[in-house]
Amino acid sequence: MQISTKDIIKPENLVYTKTKLLTDTPLSYCPGCGHGTANRIVMEVLDEMGVQDKTIGIAPVGCSVLAYNFMNVDMIQAAHGRAPAVATAVKRVFPDKFVFTYQGDGDLAAIGTAETIHACNRGENITIIFVNNGIYGMTGGQMAPTTLPNMKSSTSPYGRDVEIMGHPLRITELVAQLPGTYFVSRQAVHTPAAVRKAKKAVRKAFENQKLNKGLSFVEIVSNCNSGWKMTPNDSNKWMEENMFPAYPLGDIKVPKDENI
Description:
- With about 260 residues, the protein is of the alpha/beta class.
- It has helices at about 5-10, 35-50, 85-95, 105-110, 115-120, 160-165, 170-175, 190-210, 225-230, 230-245, and strands at about 55-60, 75, 100-105, 125-130, 180-190, 215-220, 250-255.
- It has a single domain, classed as Thiamin diphosphate (ThDP)-binding fold, Pyr/PP domains (Rossmann fold, 3-Layer(aba) Sandwich), CATH 3.40.50.970.
- It contains 10 helices and 7 strands.
- A 7-stranded mixed sheet has the order 2-1-3-4-6-5-7, with helices on both faces.
């Protein structure tokens, strides 16, 4: 007996469906980029929590700005680097809302360093999602604060020279030292196992906000195969061999009485 497609996709046969908090707009991130997966797990978490109508996201300039096309929640665009400041204002005006920022490393760790540090130090009851690919992805592949030593970019064509350009900034470890941060974690989305861990950390971050615990900060180490001038597979391998030793995955700050 021939089985039709309609028979296969009956509700009882489905093991996975796309969250309704992702729009039907085709993703415009570069093929192989981790941003799409990061977008998905954030929206899945909010969908599973049932807080779509209570959520306000803030994203600035760079690849993060594309999230407006894909995230089916209320969104506000911030100037480059200013998302934590805007999120602070939104949360204080609407304390019952779930407020999050979605930012890249050039935005959060360079142009917006001050806003990031002070929001974390104040312990604003928001969630920060930080995608770190070690480069300015959208604006031309320039060196970022997170660019590794000897890593090439459009503004460091011979590699990052630490003596001239300074050391990579491990801002996630930095904000973990601040008294206002409640939960700080670094994850990745390059494998199914990594995605599950990242989603668990994102869920924990939003649950903390629900309980008014203060600021939760989740870094997602990702690739930028376009900016790194590699194939997606090669960029993931390079990330594992080079990015993860510099930015090790795992929870960095978890309250002593809690474990995710």
